[in-house]
Design a protein that fits this description.
This protein is an alpha/beta fold and 258 residues long. 35% of the residues lie in helices and 21% in strands. It folds into 2 domains: 135 residues, 3-Layer(aba) Sandwich (Rossmann fold), CATH 3.40.50; 103 residues, Winged helix-like DNA-binding domain superfamily/Winged helix DNA-binding domain (Arc Repressor Mutant, subunit A). It comes from Streptomyces lucensis JCM 4490.
Length: 258
């Protein structure tokens, strides 16, 4: 297992533009100031409507759920419908149901209040890596994560068709809309159907070897995938170890195309 990222490297400055949608100035003020010390430019708005009307083209959105004019989940849905910008939800809602709904709507991560600026920076680093967006510093790009590259091409597993080149998934001919991280998780597990992948293997590969945060985010993504695939049997739990991909009620037959 790789050693943790040194704190100095974790908190090195990044020239990224963030959009913070947060109505509580007691949170937004210190957060904007703290992120600014590490080189982030933060545009702060207090309502969902203002966030949706923002034209600054941010590199990442920090979204509170408890907004005064509309539910943050609706803001997330609207943002995702028109943009692939990474979204991190920051909220006092810590229930699993809220996390799952947020992730299903397209959020890339979920951070419960209270949290520290350094933890948030770690999440921003991980999310931008996974999204393929460069997290630039004044002296150059952040070092890339040494994640394993998945197999290329189309793969058919029973009624499920997965294409890694186009990042599309179809089930019984119907398109299944997945977030980038949901697709990466499904593609990783489906590389070798029936194989049990440990939680640490999955977190290191699909997330980041230096991911900071509870592994319950993995459970939330697995639950979201099971819902979207309409059958929990696609991803089964190996108790005490991790997860495996299976074709529910059918013999596994995978076909790889160049």
């Amino acid at each position: 297992m790789n050693p943790p990222t040194p704190l100095a490297q974790l908190c090195e400055p990044y020239a990224m533009r963030l959009l913070l949608i947060e109505d509580d100035d007691r949170i937004a003020g210190p957060l904007t100031e703290g992120l600014g010390r590490y080189g982030f430019t933060v545009d702060h708005v207090r309502t969902g409507a203002a966030g949706l009307a923002d034209t600054t083209a941010p590199d990442l959105v920090l979204l509170d759920l408890g907004l005064p004019d509309m539910d943050g989940l609706d803001v997330c849905r609207s943002l995702r419908a028109r943009s692939a910008v990474p979204i991190i939800m920051i909220t006092a809602r810590g229930e699993e149901a809220d996390r799952i709904v947020g992730l299903e709507l397209g959020a890339d991560d979920y951070l419960a209040k209270p949290f520290g600026v350094r933890e948030l920076i770690a999440r921003i680093r991980a999310v931008t890596r996974r999204a393929g967006a460069p997290a630039y510093s004044p002296t150059g790009p952040a070092p890339a994560s040494p994640a394993r590259q998945p197999a290329s091409g189309a793969q058919t597993l029973g009624p499920l068709a997965l294409n890694r080149r186009t990042r599309e998934v179809h089930l019984d001919g119907r398109h299944v809309a997945l977030t980038p991280r949901e697709f990466d998780l499904l593609a990783y597990l489906a590389e070798d159907p029936g194989t049990v992948y440990s939680r640490q293997q999955i977190m290191d590969t699909v997330w980041d070897p230096h991911f900071f945060g509870p592994t319950k985010t993995l459970d939330a993504h697995v639950a979201a995938l099971r819902r979207k695939l309409s059958d929990p049997g696609w991803i089964t739990t190996a108790r005490g170890v991790g997860f495996r991909f299976t074709v529910p009620g059918d013999h596994i037959a995978a076909e790889e195309a160049g």
